[in-house]
What we know:
alpha+beta
Amino acid sequence: MVRVMYWGLWNRPPTNPNKWIFEIDIADILDTKNLVFTFLHELGHLVTLNSSQVPPDLQVFNHPDNERIYNREAAACPYYFPGEGCSLPDYI
Length: 92
Ligand SMILES: [Zn+2]
């Protein structure tokens, strides 16, 4: 069995594909070393995956559990597809 631990992550609110909600596991916040690492890691996502670099794919956003749509959109992306959309050509 593989156990996946998330210290922090970003989610989109279900009604707005251009916004993000930051979530952190408060059970682990006393571990300050990993807390700082998590904040820095998640800040990196904010800096490199924002809507001006990776416009949200509305098909994926509106059908988040549809693997066929996800695979179709990912295959159609000529650049980097991190899951939320296709990056723009001048993406870092
Ligand atoms: Zn991450």
